[in-house]
Amino acid sequence: SASEPLKVMISGAPASGKGTQCELIVKKFGLVHISTGDLLRAEVSAGTEIGLKAKEFMNAGKLVPDEIVTAMVSKRLSQQDAKEQGWLLDGYPRSAAQAQSLEKMKVRPDIYILLNVPDEVLVDRCVGRRLDPVTGKIYHIKNFPPESEEVRKRLVTRPDDTEEKVKSRLEIYKKNVEAILSTYADILNQIDGNRSKDEVFEEISLLLMQAQEAKANREKLG
Ligand code: AP5
After folding, report:
1. Cis peptide leading into residue 93 (ω within 30°)
2. The one catalytic residue among 55, 76, 125, 129
3. Engineered SS bond to 16: which of 12, 96, 165, 208, CB 3.0-4.6 Å?
4. What is the pLDDT of residues 96-110, one digit of tens each?
């Protein structure tokens, strides 16, 4: 019989490559990608009530209040596709309170992946990042330039990707990370994210296959 679907959390500093790796993970493992950053940006561009509240925090490089984000995530996790295909949670939990909310709801991943990238690389990755609003694909002006002039012309820069705001986002990340990691210490896997995206993906891919196998074996044993 088919085993329970895999549940994965991916984390790391701003621009550590979470979104880039998630594209590859989804393609190979078919998990439902739940990115709080993407969900919030969609609310902002649709001009919803949540979007109007979230916008000022995001544009300032600050965290959106926990209750807004937690409600959004629990709603998304409860949808049928996430239950059937498994999920890949990206950008959540981002504070001790958010981690506690998940624990209370008994939402726990099988594996927790942390991408490690040095600070100076992060700033360069953020400032050079561009997004394609049509496909949602992530580019970088030097590392991953667009494949055509047509795509290049429509690329946009995130309002929170200035050097100053990246530094503030990084500071907030560092203040919160320890409290979150302690919740997932038993399933934590730290990965060197300062390598080519294919090398990083190869390592993640191995870890996810191992996690899948371990899960299937546990289920067989009952
Ligand atoms: P969010 O969208 O989650 O932003 P983030 O955590 O700052 O992460 P990024 O999206 O900046 O980076 P990434 O790690 O996905 O890197 P990427 O793959 O794009 O959150 C945005 C905001 O929303 C927050 O600041 C907050 O306001 C709010 N928010 C979200 N979640 C929240 C929560 N839980 N609670 C409260 N508020 C919340 O890569 C970056 C660049 O590097 C790209 O240009 C890419 O092409 C390039 N790159 C990627 N990998 C490589 C590689 N291996 N080599 C070279 N270049 C690479």
Report:
1. yes
2. 129
3. 12
4. 999 999 999 999 999
